[in-house]
């Protein structure tokens, strides 16, 4: 038999096979969303820091963006690095979460369509495929839809974009 839990969107929760775990699940439920934010934000931050500490922003712009026909490459390189550093940290903290997650999801749409769209799946092409950036883009889109969640600075300040 299912029970309705309004605090989780009114969705019916399935009955637990081991009812003794109910207190544990109630305790960790709110920790799952910050774990997701920390994981994807931290993973993206590594990419941003690598770009920031690499040769130069101009080299990233000409070597990665302009080569793929993405123009104006230099201003967009600054946007990408900003999103992958400042935006990643903001997502980890749950600050302006919807804004940054939506912007990063758009970045990944561009990566899928422009950079990887013609490559097919990663295992069929040595240059990589579109499925991995699509996965990350959809995760950031889900974060944009959900917002920072219960353990976020957005929630602490009581405002979201």
Describe this structure in words.
It is a single chain. This protein has 161 residues and is mainly alpha-helical. Helix content is 62%, strand content 2%. The protein contains seven helices and two strands; from the N terminus they run E-E-H-H-H-H-H-H-H. It has a two-stranded antiparallel ribbon with strand order 1-2. Helix 2 runs antiparallel to helix 4, helix 3 (57-65) packs across helix 4 and helix 4 (73-93) crosses helix 5 (97-116). The longest helix has 22 residues, at 32-53. The chain starts with a strand and ends with a helix.
Short description:
By secondary structure, the protein is mainly α. It contains 7 helices and 2 strands, in the order ββααααααα.
Q: Mean pLDDT, as a whole number?
A: 85
The beta-strand count equals: 2
Strand content: under 5%
Poorly predicted runs are: 1-5
Provide the spatial order of strands within the biggest beta sheet: 1-2
Query: What is the percent of helical residues?
Result: 55-70%
Instruction: Evaluate the radius of gyration.
Output: 19 Å
Largest sheet: 2 strands, antiparallel
Order of helices and strands: EEHHHHHHH
Q: How many H/I helical runs?
A: 7
Going by helix content, strand content and strand pairing, the class is mainly alpha
Intertermini distance: 38 Å
Shape: globular
Explain the layout of strands and helices.
Blueprint: E1 3-4, E2 12-13, H1 22-28, H2 32-53, H3 57-65, H4 73-93, H5 97-116, H6 131-146, H7 153-157
Antiparallel strand pairs: 1-2
Keywords:
161 residues, mainly alpha, two-stranded antiparallel ribbon, 7 helices, 2 strands, 62% helix
């Amino acid at each position: 038999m299912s029970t309705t839990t309004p605090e989780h969107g009114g969705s019916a929760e399935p009955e637990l096979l081991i009812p003794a775990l109910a207190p544990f699940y109630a305790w960790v439920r709110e920790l799952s969303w910050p774990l997701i934010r920390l994981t994807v934000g931290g993973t993206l931050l590594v990419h941003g820091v690598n770009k920031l500490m690499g040769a130069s922003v101009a080299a990233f712009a000409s070597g990665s963006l302009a080569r793929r026909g993405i123009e104006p490459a230099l201003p967009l390189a600054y946007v990408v690095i900003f999103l992958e550093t400042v935006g990643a940290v903001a997502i980890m903290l749950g600050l302006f979460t919807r804004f940054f997650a939506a912007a990063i999801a758009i970045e990944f749409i561009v990566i899928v369509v422009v950079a990887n769209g013609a490559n097919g799946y990663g295992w069929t092409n040595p240059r990589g495929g579109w499925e991995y950036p699509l996965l990350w883009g959809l995760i950031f889109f889900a974060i944009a839809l959900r917002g920072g969640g219960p353990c976020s600075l957005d929630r602490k300040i009581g405002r979201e974009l």
